[in-house]
Amino acid sequence: MTTADTGIQLPRGAMAGLSIAAFASGISLRVTDAMLPRLANDFSLALGDAAAVITVFAVAYGFAQLLFGPMGDRFGKYRVIALGCIACAFTTASCALAPSFALLLVARVLAGATAASIIPLAMAWIGDVVPYDRRQPVLARFLIGQILGVSAGVLLGGYAADHLHWRTPFALIAVIFLVIGSVLLLTNRRLPLAARQRRTGTGSAIARMGAEFAQILALPWARVVLLTVFAEGAFLYGAFAYMVSHLHQAHALSLASAGEVVMLFGFGGLLFALAATLLVRRLGEAGLALWGGLLVCLAFLVVAWADRWWWSIPACFVAGLGFYMLHNTLQINATQMAPERRGSAVAAFAASFFIGQSVGVAVDGQLIPTIGTTGVIVLGALGVLLVSLNFSRLRKQRTSFLQPTPKPP
Q1: How far apart (Å, rounded) are the C-alpha atoms in residues 65 and 62?
Q2: What are phi and psi of 8, to 5 degrees?
Q3: In-domain check, residue 404
Q4: Residue range 311-343, pLDDT digits in tens
Q5: Total domain count, the chain
Q6: Is residue 247 within 8 Å of 262, Cβ to Cβ?
Q7: CATH number of the domain residue 360 falls in
Q8: Burial of 369 by CB count in 10 Å (0-12 exposed, 13-18 middle, 19+ buried)?
Q9: Cα Dmax for the chain
Q10: Residue 207, φ and ψ in degrees, nearest 5
């Protein structure tokens, strides 16, 4: 495979391997969403307290980006991803072996920290080998793996909560990580030098890391993108984490059935990935952000207020389509906001997104006793709408600002 305009010849399967790694990461991220009622029951916890398994994963995932971004730039992004997958196999297996809820939380912290090495670095690597004007559709196709992983995680978690032990999914995910990590290590050896590039530096690694992030934060557009994705993560995934629980409680669906409904979120994202080239051409970045937020808002409101559970079937599908329209637009901006230190820039982006998620899940967990799952989903809907409207406006302004001034005849 040769990436257009770069001349880099990639071995067969290099992109597919990253997508499979993203699949495993997506499962690991979302597998506990549908298991919350089961975990709350087994460990005698309130639903909001059981959600700590999501929060600690997201916090660790977010902060670990500050380490893996510079590591990818320094040691080679593809190599770090491969080794990260191997590490994920062991940390995910530790979740399956945890004898208590407290140790399960510790294991989820480790699982989140190691999973941080995969998707953001893969996005940054794609940014290195694919030119900007062709990058958004390529990123969208790569993220098919994560999209399907998110759906599979919700489905697997719901099925395990009803029919298996909650430990079973973690054991299966660990095996997937071990296999794909081994494949990626072999693929890395076949990459051309330009696709395994490393950056060397002098002085303290910690000082260089701090300097890189400081330089990224000094860029006004980078601050806009990072704050936007933080708010997106807080509002959208703060509500999404409780969607299976909402369908289970409000409509008496089994956790397995509720997981099957919510997994359609991923299939909406799959539609975006397949139609990304057309949508980007028709709507542009500002239009994608605007319409993506509108679709998420409307879909979440349907899930929250519908008097029949089956309304959630099309709603979850539309929510997934809208989310990936918005989020993929933010991702493409992240890959270009600091090209000379892309690994660190995308790491800062992912850190903001997942720290936002952890804040949203934690805050919504405390709000549930007061406003219920319906209230937190409505809050998420309105928040995502405001985020998308603001980013679309700013993106239009930036496009206008960057347009060259016509020369007088």
Answers
A1: 6
A2: -85, 120
A3: no
A4: 999 999 999 999 989 988 888 787 776 666 666
A5: 1
A6: yes
A7: 1.20.1250.20
A8: exposed
A9: 77
A10: -65, -40
